[in-house]
């Protein structure tokens, strides 16, 4: 048997083994995504076949107040959850990296909420945020706050309440940072300590650069996830009050399945992909300057 | 929460300061544990309470209970706990027997969907991962990058066209849209399994090849038996993902009889706004319980599975 035929056989075998994924990718992602481009140029009311209308959907979006509002709300949510979530999960990972007894148990406790069904999470927090009998307001009254606010019912507070609640679900990031921290050579930290670096300086100049690839990964994943947020505001606030928690995905969902405007929804969805892609590529470009990769 | 001094600094500090800082750190550690457990504990505690608790403010995790004569029971009496158990049984029975939602059915539906989805995801991801880890072919690394890139596509982009596709296939209102895509593998599972397969020594493949095994033989006799931990993690994560999934059942199911537990739970709370919070929390506990069981059994494996994600770059 010649070498060429062995290589050709490997080529065929390789493609054959990954073919389930290729077929699934084409059927459930690539083709629907391509169809979505086409629909975005049509008026498609579901019951009738799509009608080509060119750029009309995109023109309508440019003067759609709810588009800008939902985009703004989503960016606020993303900014809040990503920055606060990153700081908190790094802090928790550093705490859990210390040689303290029971830290394995505490790590498991911090990780647990990420596994809880989002519907149960949302309902549980609606009960906690309940203005009259919720855990937070009852506690606030007990310590002397006379009129604690309705956390999910005030336009100025609802989004902040959703961001605060997302901090309960940073467990995956904590676990990923924990694994990265374990890989930081102790010798490096000790060398810095001998050179007189205090804890803050050691963190900034040794630990943080060493775990920067994990930071980049977590930041990108949480940007992607927070830009897609849907279930939590859908269940907890229905986008209200006054559309203050109307997030982008919810607006796409409503356009498609409540208003029956599939074409318009497809155009909205494509813009969402572009925003996500733009932010991700921007972060990757920024990361070139900050992320340190050890030689393999 | 500034970060705490590390070992070398501790060693230099005088003994009393060291003891104080350890005490503070332990305090911090347990405060974190308390705050992260609190929402779930509160959910569970509420699910045991009499209905009045939904509208009366109290911080006590244990409800005020009375006996048959209307006398208040103290938490020190054993009878308090039998009354508590009775109240809990009452709440959970209300959830299971409520005329507005058929939770037995929802749970069964979730089990069916999860079983099909987990089986498909594990088998097909393992097959694809083998192709990415063990066979050398042109375009492999490029395609693998594409696999990882699909994790970035928002579901909303494919949501509308997927709905139309499943409508064409007459799948709307059936379980198929929820489990069939899993039979073509998933990015994260393929990534995790490929990572694991790469760690299995290639000499084993060579030995099997000399014994006359093809790829199928190597896959079934060498790779799969050695990858049980990774396969378990993939199966468990898929189970959890599937059990928790809310958006897809919301879009693709249209009849209440077909609802999964997560969707049924949301409908139970939202469509019948008058359900007391004690009962809603009991329903939440029922839906969360299988996840907690999986977590208790396989906590370490799941944590390690998630941790490998960060090694991607």
What does this structure look like?
Chain A is an all-alpha fold and 296 residues long. Chain A has one domain: Orthogonal Bundle (MetI-like fold). Helices cover 71% and strands 1% of the residues of chain A. Chain A has a two-stranded antiparallel ribbon. In chain A, α3 packs across α13, α4 packs antiparallel against α8 and α11 packs antiparallel against α14. Chain A is globular, with a radius of gyration of 24 Å. Chain A starts with a helix and ends in a 6-residue tail after the last helix. Chain B has two domains: 47 residues, no CATH class; 209 residues, MetI-like fold (Orthogonal Bundle). In chain B, α8 runs antiparallel to α11. Chain B is mainly alpha-helical. Chain B has 14 helices and no strands. The radius of gyration of chain B is 26 Å and the shape is globular. Classes of the chains: A mainly alpha (296), B mainly alpha (313). Chains A and B meet through α1, α3, α4, α5 and α6 of A and α1, α2, α4, α5 and α6 of B.
CATH H-level name of chain A... which superfamily?
Answer: MetI-like
Tally of DSSP β-strands of chain A: 2
Shape of chain A: globular
- The neighbouring-strand order within the major sheet of chain A is 1-2
CATH domain class name of chain A? Mainly Alpha
Order of helices and strands of chain A: HEEHHHHHHHHHHHHH
SSE pattern of chain B, N- to C-terminal? HHHHHHHHHHHHHH
What brief labels describe this structure?
heterodimer, A: 296 residues, mainly alpha, MetI-like fold, two-stranded antiparallel ribbon, 71% helix, B: 313 residues, 14 helices
SSE layout and pairing:
The complex is a heterodimer of chains A (296) and B (313).
Chain A: H1 3-39, E1 42-43, E2 51-52, H2 56-62, H3 65-97, H4 103-111, H5 118-129, H6 135-142, H7 158-166, H8 171-182, H9 186-194, H10 199-210, H11 212-227, H12 231-236, H13 248-258, H14 262-290
Antiparallel strand pairs in A: 1-2
Helix pairs in contact in A: 1-14, 3-7, 3-8, 3-11, 3-13, 4-8, 9-10, 11-14, 13-14
Chain B: H1 7-12, H2 15-47, H3 78-97, H4 103-133, H5 140-149, H6 155-168, H7 176-179, H8 187-198, H9 202-210, H10 215-226, H11 228-244, H12 247-252, H13 261-271, H14 277-307
Helix pairs in contact in B: 2-14, 3-14, 4-8, 4-11, 4-13, 5-8, 8-11, 9-10, 11-14, 13-14
């Amino acid at each position: 048997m010649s070498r060429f035929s062995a290589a050709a056989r490997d080529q065929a075998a390789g493609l054959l083994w990954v073919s389930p994924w290729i077929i699934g990718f084409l059927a459930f992602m690539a083709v629907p995504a391509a169809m979505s481009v086409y629909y975005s140029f049509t008026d498609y009311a579901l019951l009738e076949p799509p009608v080509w209308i060119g750029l009309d959907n995109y023109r309508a979006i440019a003067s759609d107040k709810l588009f800008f509002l939902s985009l703004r709300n989503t960016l606020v949510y993303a900014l809040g959850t990503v920055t606060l979530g990153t700081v908190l999960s790094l802090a928790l990972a550093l705490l859990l990296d210390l040689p303290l007894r029971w830290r394995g148990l505490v790590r498991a406790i911090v990780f647990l909420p990420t596994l809880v069904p989002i519907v149960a999470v949302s309902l549980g927090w609606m009960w906690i945020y309940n203005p009259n009998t919720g855990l937070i307001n009852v506690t606030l009254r007990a310590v002397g706050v006379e009129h604690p606010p309705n956390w999910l019912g005030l336009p100025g507070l609802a989004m902040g309440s959703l961001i605060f609640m997302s901090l309960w679900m940073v467990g995956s990031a904590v676990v990923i940072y924990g694994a990265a921290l374990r890989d930081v050579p102790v010798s490096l930290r000790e060398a810095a300590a001998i050179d007189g670096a205090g804890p803050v300086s050691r963190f900034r100049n040794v630990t943080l650069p060493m775990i920067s690839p994990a930071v980049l990964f977590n930041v990108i994943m949480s940007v992607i996830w927070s830009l897609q947020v849907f279930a939590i505001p859908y269940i907890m606030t229905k986008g209200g009050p006054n559309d203050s928690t109307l997030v982008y995905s919810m607006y796409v969902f409503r356009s498609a399945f409540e208003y029956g405007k599939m074409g318009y929804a497809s155009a909205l969805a494509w813009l969402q992909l572009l925003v996500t892609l733009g932010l991700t590529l921007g972060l990757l470009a920024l990361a070139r300057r900050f992320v340190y990769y050890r030689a393999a | 929460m500034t970060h705490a001094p590390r070992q070398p600094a501790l060693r230099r500090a005088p003994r009393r300061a060291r003891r104080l800082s350890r005490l503070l750190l332990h305090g911090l550690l347990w405060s974190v544990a308390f705050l992260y457990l609190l929402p779930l504990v509160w959910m569970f505690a509420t699910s045991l309470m009499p209905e009045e608790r939904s509208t009366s403010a109290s911080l006590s995790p244990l409800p005020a209970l009375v006996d048959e004569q209307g006398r208040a029971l103290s938490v020190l009496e054993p009878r308090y706990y039998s009354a508590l158990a009775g109240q809990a049984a009452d709440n959970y029975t209300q959830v299971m027997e409520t005329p507005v939602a058929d939770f037995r059915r929802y749970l069964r539906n979730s089990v069916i969907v999860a079983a099909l989805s987990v089986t498909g995801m594990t088998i097909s991801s393992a097959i694809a991962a083998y192709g990415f880890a063990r066979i050398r072919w042109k375009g492999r690394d490029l395609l693998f990058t594409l696999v990882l890139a699909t994790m970035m596509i928002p579901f909303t982009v494919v949501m509308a066209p997927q709905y139309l596709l499943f409508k064409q296939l007459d799948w709307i209102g059936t379980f198929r849209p929820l489990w069939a895509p899993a039979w073509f593998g998933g990015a994260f599972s393929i990534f995790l399994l490929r990572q694991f397969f790469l760690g299995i020594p290639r000499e084993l493949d060579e030995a099997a090849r000399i014994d006359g095994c093809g790829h199928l033989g190597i896959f079934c006799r060498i790779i799969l038996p050695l990858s049980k931990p990774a396969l378990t993690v993939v199966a468990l994560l898929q189970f959890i993902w599937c059990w928790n999934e809310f958006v897809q059942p919301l879009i693709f199911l249209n009849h209440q009889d077909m609802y999964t537990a997560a969707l049924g739970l949301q409908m139970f709370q939202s469509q019948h706004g008058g359900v007391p919070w004690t009962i809603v929390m009991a329903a939440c506990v029922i839906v969360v319980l299988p996840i907690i069981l999986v977590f208790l059994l396989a906590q370490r494996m799941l944590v390690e599975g998630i941790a490998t994600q960060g090694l991607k770059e």
